[in-house]
Amino acid sequence: MTPNEEYVLEALQKKFGGTIMDGEDPPDAYLCIEEKRIAVEVTRLIEQVTDDNGAKISRLAHDGPAIDFLDDVDREMQNTVPDGKYVFIVIGAPIKNIRLTRKKIIAEISEKI
Asked: Over the Cα atoms of the chain, what is R_g?
């Protein structure tokens, strides 16, 4: 069972009580409350967006590289930013030149702190 599935099942159990039984995949599990056995299938819906060429792509495919980019900047700078200070970065996706953008953002943050 994935962490997302476990989270959802724990939340349902906390909210409604009952017990959780493994499912046959699908469903992921059953929530058993009194005499009822309720099938639970956890699915993540991904929004579709239009890329620069007018084609439909998943929002995750569009935003994923930007999220990875910011995670990399965070890892690189985590020991640079003083305690009690916070850096907020708002960036659009897709990023045209990741290496250059990363270099400029890190330089800007370093200069500011």
From this structure: 21
pLDDT, tens digit (0-9, with 9 covering 90-100), for 28-48: 999 999 999 999 999 988 888
For residues 4 and 93, which has the higher predicted lDDT (pLDDT)?
4
Cα(46)–Cα(69) distance, integer angstroms? 20
27: nearest Cα among 15, 12, 17, 16: 12
Give the DSSP H/E element, type plus range, for residue 33.
strand 29-33
Per-residue buried b or exposed e for 93-113, using 16+ beta carbons within 10 Å of the residue's own CB: eebeeeeeebeebeeebeeee
CA atoms within 13 A on the CB side of 36: 8
Strands 29-33 and 36-40: antiparallel
Report the C-alpha gap between 13 and 93 in whole angstroms.
37
